[in-house]
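Model it.
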Amino acid sequence: MLRLHRLRHHAVGRHVLAPCSALTRNACAHGTFTARQLSTSSARLAQVKFAHWIDKETGKLDTAKLETKWKTRWAEAKPPVRKPLTAAEIDRLFYVLVMFPYPSGVLHMGHVRVYTISDVLTRFHRMRGKHVVSPMGWDAFGLPAENAAIERSIAPAQWTRQNIATMKDQLSRILTDFDWDRELATCDPAYYKWTQHIFLQLFKNDMVYRKDAVVNWDPIDQTVLANEQVDKDGRSWRSGAVVEQRKLKQWFARITRYAQDLLDDLDALNWPDHVKSMQANWIGRSEGAEFEFALDPPIPDAQSKAISVFTSRADTLFGVSYLAIAPDHWLV
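Modeled.
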């Protein structure tokens, strides 16, 4: 015999199954179940609750029909118009920002994994009473969109908008709960005018500059690649072309001016120590001195008569036996 001190409701997602059969009520009144009665009651309960959702031809649960019901109910439960936040809502504000996908065609399982995680966080904190802001957008600006459109002989705007519509439908079908009234696309003039504005402010305040730098060049896509976009064989992850090293003029931001501020503020972050250590290494601030070693004999028509070297240990200079220069150094 199994004695139950309390009969709990069983919650599955947003469905609450409340024991309601005569057998269950009688057993609840006496506080006892037999193992056979418990099993039989659960089976009858499942049949009653889910009979409407069983496909008559296959005998299986019609998940698409079930999802349609709850998608409709959740949409009806959401406020139709976003209003300014009240003081109470601001105190309970929780911001969930996930990466914006590049609208290259369709979602893959990597997208599903990332957006499932963000969706769980959104629903969890909303159920805890937080006012959750969870926007979604599209990283939809740049040469890859133009190259893809050229391959298909359609306008980049048309190709990008088609993909956004397809991927948005996919996100809806996996029941992600984003604030679609906050949706944005980086290819919209209403969005990128602000990135242009920010760049102009940086330029006016001498926070950006141009110089020659070696880049990974994709000769097929005619675009620059990040190191992560070059595979172990030295080929572009997108086109498969052998990546070339080219020296081009690039824009750089003077982030080194803020290296110490960034390092100091790491102490104020509630992050794991190993993550803060990675950030500190990435910032890479080092104190030292810069010295020049004269070229002997001088090289005709060289851009400099000396090699500039930085060291954090000036006291070891008298023991120097050689200088190592990078492959992209002007002397090479």
